[in-house]
Every structure is written in C-alpha cells, then in structure tokens.
Design brief:
Bound molecules: adenosine-5'-triphosphate
Shape: globular
CATH superfamily of the largest domain: Bira Bifunctional Protein, Domain 2
CATH topology of the largest domain: BirA Bifunctional Protein, domain 2
Order of helices and strands: EHEEHEEEEEHHEEEEE
Distance between the termini: 55 Å
Strand content: 25-35%
CATH architecture of the largest domain: 2-Layer Sandwich
Length: 242
C-alpha cells in the first residue's frame, strides 16, 4: 500500500507548510506526504537554502512520536536508509554512498538533502533529491541522478520513497535503532574513510556507527570519538609521495 501523497504545483517549503498545519492544530496523519513540483524557499539545515528544480523530488512527511519510540534524533538515520534504499531499488547501477547521517553522495557530489524539524510530538521530515538537475554551487560539488545515468520519474520516486519510509519506520519502532544502524552500514562510506567534522574541527577515520547511531571517528592515535551531531565532510585520502 502506498501512503497518501498530496501533490502541489508550487510552494515556499513543504516542511514549512506541514509545520504550519501542525501549529494550526490540524491533524496530519503519520505517513502523509506533501510533494511540490517547485519550491521557492526550500530549506536545509541551520537556515541553509535548498535549491529546487522541475522534475526533482521535494517533499515532506510527518512522524507522530509515540511512547516508547527510540530517540527522535535517530530519525535522521531512518530517513537516510529509506532514501538510499529507494535510490538503490530504482537506480541499481548508480554508485553512491550515504554520508553520515543521511546525505547521498555520488563521486563526492551531493545529490540530496534531508531536514528534520520537530514540533511537539511531531517530527517533520523534508527530503530533496536531485533527480533531474542540480544547482551549480560555488562552495560544493552537486550532482543529479540523471547525470549519473538514471532517469527516474518524480511520481514513481515519491511512491517508492513513501513505502521505503514506512518500512524503515516500522523497523525503527519494532526492532530499534540498532537494526537501522545495521541497514545503514552497507549503504554508507566504508570503514577507514577519512572524515572531517567541522564544528568540533575533528579529523579521523570512519569506524562504523555506535549502536545508538552516533558516528565513530577514529583519530590518528587510534582513539575512537563518538560524534552525535555535526557537519561531516569526506576527505580524500592523502596520496603517497605527494
Ligand atoms: P552537508 O552535510 O552536506 O553539509 P547540510 O546539512 O549542510 O549538509 P543540507 O541541509 O542537507 O546541508 O542542505 C543544504 C546545503 O546543501 C546548502 O547549504 C547547499 O550548500 C547545498 N544545496 C542546496 N541545494 C542543493 C541541491 N539541490 N543539491 C545539492 N546541494 C544543495
């Protein structure tokens, strides 16, 4: 069963719309999706902007937190797993990695963004995916799945993502975060990938995830640090002899 998907031609931000409905006391059922053809004020984390494009996926959904649910912050991994599984299913030939916690990178270029915003016991999850086009940005490499060789119809993508999200949420609730972590690891950057965490100015190597979903970063001295939040960048390995 595909969850209910509400499609609109244009809005500022699908996350802002769902948050406004919740603030107005409207009931938004879990699994409901709001998907826009165009977003004029798409948002990323920390007040950053998300660039739209016709044919790209831009949509938001709501999780209604229940007593006994794992920590809401771990929904970042749930969304990442659902998104990565959707891309893998619809575009099996594309070589991509999940960058902790939930960015899709293809050859180091950013193909998607996920924003979680909480309002009371509701968490709005917004997902943007460059299916057809990616904006040129001065400060980072971006890519679309189309330029990586996969032509994916937006509505087909929305249907598959809605199902994958419902499935990942079920796993999160019934089996816990550890099960989501197990699903995340084979979709993510390999152990040993050099990483930089900007806020804390930490450099190290990816050493898997803790059972609660935290990033394990192994420093040059072999000590493992746990990172619960932060901007993570993939560093290219230093080439020998250079
Ligand atoms: P990251 O860990 O990649 O730095 P982030 O949390 O900073 O992620 P997001 O909230 O996922 O970023 O997305 C916002 C950022 O993504 C913007 O600051 C911009 O650099 C970049 N961006 C904006 N629009 C797009 C797009 N359509 N495709 C790829 N990157 C984008």
């Amino acid at each position: 069963m595909i969850p209910p998907i509400e499609r609109i031609a244009q809005t500022g931000s699908t996350n802002a719309d769902l948050l406004a409905r919740l603030a107005a006391g409207e009931h938004v059922g879990e699994g409901h999706w709001l998907v826009a053809d165009r977003q004029t004020a798409g948002r990323g984390r920390l007040g950053r902007a998300w660039g739209d494009g016709l044919g790209n996926f831009m949509g938001s959904t709501v999780v209604q937190l229940r007593a006994g649910d794992p920590l809401a912050a771990t929904l970042a991994l749930v969304a990442g797993v659902a998104l990565a599984k959707t891309i893998r299913a619809l575009a099996p030939a594309i070589d991509f990695q999940l960058k902790w916690p939930n960015d899709i990178l293809a050859d180091g270029a950013k193909c998607s963004g996920i924003l979680l915003e909480r309002s009371g016991d509701s968490v709005v999850i917004g997902i943007g995916v460059n299916l057809v086009s990616a904006p040129d940005l001065p400060d980072r490499a971006t890519a679309s799945l189309a330029e990586k060789g996969a032509a994916i119809d937006r509505d087909r993508f929305a249907d598959a993502l809605a199902v994958a999200m419902a499935d990942a949420l079920w796993t999160w609730r019934q089996e816990g975060v550890e099960s989501i972590v197990r699903a995340w690891l084979p979709l993510g950057h390999p152990v040993g990938t050099p990483l930089h965490v900007s806020e804390q100015a930490l450099d190290g190597y990816f050493d898997g995830l803790a059972p609660d979903g935290a990033l394990r970063l192994r420093g040059a001295d072999g000590e493992v640090m746990l990172v619960h939040a932060g901007d993570v960048e993939l560093r290219r390995p230093v080439e020998e002899g250079k």
